[in-house]
Amino acid sequence: MAAQSESSSSQSSTNRHAGHATQRIAQWGAAATWRDVPAAVRHEAKRALVNYMAVALAGCTDPTLDKAVRVYQRFGADRSAGMIGRCERFDMLNAAALNAMSANVFDFDDTHIPTIIHPSAPVAAALLALAQTRPMTGEALLLAFVLGVEVECRIGNAVSPEHYQRGWHITSTCGVFGAAAAVAKVLGLNARQIAWALGNASAQAGGLVETLGTMSKSISVGNAARNGLLSALLAADDFSGPDAPLEGTRGFLRVTAAQPKIEALTDGLGLEWSLLSNTYKPYPCGVVLNPVIDACLDLRRDAHWSLDDVERVELTGHPLLRERTDRPAVRSGRESQVSAQHAVAVALATGKAGLAQFSDSAVGDPSLRAFGARLRFIDDPSWPVESAQVAVVLRSGDTISRRIQAARGSLAAPLADVELAAKLHELAAYGGSGVAPQPLIDTLWRFDGEADAAVLMKLACAN
Amino acid sequence: MAAQSESSSSQSSTNRHAGHATQRIAQWGAAATWRDVPAAVRHEAKRALVNYMAVALAGCTDPTLDKAVRVYQRFGADRSAGMIGRCERFDMLNAAALNAMSANVFDFDDTHIPTIIHPSAPVAAALLALAQTRPMTGEALLLAFVLGVEVECRIGNAVSPEHYQRGWHITSTCGVFGAAAAVAKVLGLNARQIAWALGNASAQAGGLVETLGTMSKSISVGNAARNGLLSALLAADDFSGPDAPLEGTRGFLRVTAAQPKIEALTDGLGLEWSLLSNTYKPYPCGVVLNPVIDACLDLRRDAHWSLDDVERVELTGHPLLRERTDRPAVRSGRESQVSAQHAVAVALATGKAGLAQFSDSAVGDPSLRAFGARLRFIDDPSWPVESAQVAVVLRSGDTISRRIQAARGSLAAPLADVELAAKLHELAAYGGSGVAPQPLIDTLWRFDGEADAAVLMKLACAN
């Protein structure tokens, strides 16, 4: 019974200072047009989708996806939606789930810096699934994508940093709202229905940090896309939700963070854009390793010495770097993605730092393990986390060092458009789907002029 | 990147005092047999299923279900599974979701007293969906049901009371684990796979109290059944999860409760049974109203007075009764379920307290509202919540009162088997599906001898 009596009280006790945040977001979403989106944000949306396609084309053949495809395929109503880089067909809910899972399975997808949300996977996957069953323009899809990312990142801002620290996998928990908002927009729902879509999403927000590093993680990321899409489809049929699913007394924010910043939901809405805080990884590693790998690739490029000449490697950076990446004895590719010893060894040895260098087979090379043992950490709390210095101390006594102030891929040194395109080329080859990268890239850069958004998935599916 | 570095640390930092609770539950589940289940627990499982069928037959035609059926039906791979009280067919995931939603839509389903979980809906719905696609005996289904309820209620015990108070809809958040465990058992998974099923479920646990009273609530209850079933199907294909999804540092317990009682997961496992703390509501109301309604029906039965003779009604009970049910101006059937004013008025006026008496149309009767205004609460903290006294003060000066020590349906005064059967008859008629109740009841009382568990759903579906 408590259930019932709680319900009425919690619904009427929305914090007045919150200013009805859910309703304001819904009204903003319903009214927003492509003209309201600044040029820089429009372009960032395309960049995010290029990166999304790249990581999805890499992840689509991972064993996690093979298993998920096998099970999810048993539950598809029709074959109306495809999967990036694969030939199987699904209904749109399952396609949304799988295309979010594949983009995130290596954690190589984009990162919204204030929240560490990987924003694109849930939102893009939901929209691309719907676009295969319902006519929409590229512009409409891009607008919905921008709005979806905005909603999920603002919710993330409101619960950060406590939410993730406590153990919520923020990409999944906030992603479902982003997917719901994006689909609600592209379906043309009114403000009341958009709020219901967010309410329906609130009933489905989940995902735990404890599952990271296991296949289970992918379920929650897939669910964020699938259930966000479902939330909006239900809202379109007037399946109604609470008035304040976000800011209410027992709404998402207060339940998953003791001190939510409710104003973060709406402050500067329509003026400040979360996509402008979005970044793309150059390497499939924890971001604190980015400057380390930058330095190692740089050192290797100019090297007049061989690994055998090296006495030790000194790595200077913020203590967080050591705390998160001091892992000398890695046993799996996944673990190597957060090992400074492995990253330094493989980057100096091969001059590369792609998925192949952080795979199970790369980890199996004993010479890399041996070289990694020569790494020494030097903590310096005065260094920003996006910086690091690598010093190679040779047996001859000489030391060659590189200091990176702002790693490639950070907000201060973002990947250029051509680098994102190159990432898509490289990851498409890695995934081995046979999908041609260039037509995808060309289509995305001019996607706002595309009359039929479905063309993107036609290019992205293998056959 | 934080995501990745967190992952390894969290997985290795399971609390040692927790004694690997997930693994111990999984081992117990894998080994348990029907012979291990005491006779009283076996019988309680059947009683829970009778009650489950009753509430599902009532809820199946609610507008919430009509809408959900319309949307979910678009996403069904096949028509292998039916819905209780309806003729549409679905794949088993969607059938599981819908059969959990319908059983819970009125909050008239069973209540596990220590946690206020409605335990049967997610677990039974998942099992009955699977039973339509895979041969199993009634005994196998009942054993899996007992284990599933045990797992979900133990998880609920470990996070109560904080979890629900904070705003987690505990039926949904814990139900997904129960459904996963139950299906894992009936699929014959080994202990390792059962633990994975729980890990896959941990990635999908969600549901907020803020959604109660709206349609959104039903999504999370449906998801508990659907996603629990999916978790076990994935685990059967070796889709792997974390080692300690429950007790881990960033596992379900610690993330959703600051002070979880981890020992509650395993203390007395196999010796103490949660089903013995399960109760069934005689009235579709908040449980604190049960003694009030008992008293009113009693008073009405012997009444030598009419409502017009009544000066006022004095209601004595624990202050919680007033806090949760002082609602003089109800506007909907749903709200009337937690209104003492409406409950007293309708029970004294009609001598009944079924779903029809707590419907939108019952609330529309102005004479009930007027009579409800004559109610006075008298708080007495010394009264247990399962007790209450109703005193009818007549204009003549006479007072007639009834004191109820333990309400019908409480653990101290459980509904008898015949009362549960009568509830099924009454609710089947209310739902109007045309499903014949008696064959269902007869089948359930002897379900452990049933060679083909699928027979139950053949009897329960309309056609």
What does this structure look like?
2 copies of one chain form a homodimer. Chain A is an alpha+beta fold. The first copy, chain A, folds into 2 domains: about 1-280 and about 420-460, 2-methylcitrate dehydratase PrpD (Orthogonal Bundle), CATH 1.10.4100; about 285-405, 60s Ribosomal Protein L30, Chain: A. In chain A, about 50% of the residues lie in helices and about 5% in strands. The first copy, chain A, has 21 helices and 8 strands. The first copy, chain A, has a 4-stranded mixed beta sheet with strand order 6-5-7-8. Chain A has a two-stranded antiparallel sheet with strand order 1-2. In chain A, a hairpin with a 4-residue loop joins strand 7 and strand 8 (about 400-405). In chain A, helix 5 (about 90-105) runs antiparallel to helix 6 (about 120-130), helix 7 packs antiparallel against helix 9 (about 170-185) and helix 13 packs parallel to helix 16. Chains A and B meet through helix 1, helix 4, helix 5, helix 10 and helix 11 of A and helix 1, helix 4, helix 5, helix 10 and helix 11 of B.
Write the layout of secondary structure elements.
Two copies of one chain form a homodimer.
Chain A: H1 2-12, H2 21-31, H3 39-59, H4 63-72, E1 81-82, E2 89-90, H5 92-104, E3 111-112, H6 120-131, H7 138-159, H8 162-166, H9 170-186, H10 191-202, H11 216-236, H12 252-256, E4 278-279, H13 290-301, E5 310-317, H14 319-325, H15 333-336, H16 340-350, H17 360-363, H18 366-372, E6 375-379, E7 388-394, E8 399-404, H19 417-431, H20 437-445, H21 455-460
Parallel strand pairs in A: 5-6
Antiparallel strand pairs in A: 1-2, 3-4, 5-7, 7-8
